[in-house]
C-alpha cells in the first residue's frame, strides 16, 4: 500500500482544491491562534464543508478545553482531531468519548525516550504522529524542524502512525525509506511563506512521497 499523505495548515479554498486534486488522504485545519495558519470557526467551517466527502478532514488543536470543542463540533464536521499539546491519555479518551471523533496524538520527538512515550497513548489515541520537538516558547509544530529519523527505526505500534517535522519534496522519499512511515504529514514544506500554500510544492511533495 502506498504511503498516506496529510497536508496541514490549509487556509485557502484554492489550496484545498490543489490538495484534493493531488489525492492527498488528509487535509489539516489549524485552530491555534499563535499560528500563522490559524482559522476562525467561520473560515474553518467553509473549508471543512468544501472538503466534505472529498478528503479526510483533520482539525489540529493544542490543549483544547471543552468550551472550544463544543463550539467547534457544533459548526464543523471533522473526521479526526490532532492534539499537539500536553494532553494526557485520560484527556484523549475523554475527548474521543464526548465528541465521538478519532483522536490523533502528536508526540514531540528529540530523543528515544520521547518515541517511547507513544506507548502511553495506546488504548486512548487512534493514531500517533511523531513530530519534531520545538524550542520552549515556540509553536509546537509547523516550524519546518526535523528530528533524527533513525529514532524511529524500531517503531512497532498497535495503532497507525505517521511522521511529521521538516518534510518537503526533496527529503520525504529518504524519510519514508529510512523510517518506513506509513503516513507523512507536511506543513511549511508546501508553503512559500508561513501560511501561504503553493500548489506546485503540494504537487511535488505528493509525487515525491509516492515515488518510494
Ligand atoms: O503548522 C502549525 O502552524 C502548527 C501549529 C501548532 C501546532 C502544530 C502545527 N503544525 C503541525 O506540525 C507539523 C510539522 O510542520 P512542518 O512540516 O515542520 O512545518 C505539521 O504538519 C502540523 O501537523
Automatic annotation (TrEMBL):
RNA-binding among keywords: no
Residue ranges annotated for the N-(5'phosphoribosyl) anthranilate isomerase (PRAI) domain, each copy included: 5-207
EC number: 5.3.1.24
Keyword Cytoplasm annotated: no
Single GO molecular function: phosphoribosylanthranilate isomerase activity
Catalytic activity: N-(5-phospho-beta-D-ribosyl)anthranilate = 1-(2-carboxyphenylamino)-1-deoxy-D-ribulose 5-phosphate
Alphabetical keyword list: Amino-acid biosynthesis, Aromatic amino acid biosynthesis, Isomerase, Tryptophan biosynthesis
Matching Pfam families: PRAI (PF00697)
Enzyme category, top tier: isomerase
Annotated pathway: Amino-acid biosynthesis; L-tryptophan biosynthesis; L-tryptophan from chorismate: step 3/5
Superkingdom of this protein's organism: Bacteria
UniProt cross-references to NCBIfam families, sorted A to Z: PRK01222.1-1
Family (UniProt): Belongs to the TrpF family.
Protein name: N-(5'-phosphoribosyl)anthranilate isomerase
Source organism phylogeny: Bacteria, Pseudomonadati, Pseudomonadota, Alphaproteobacteria, Sphingomonadales
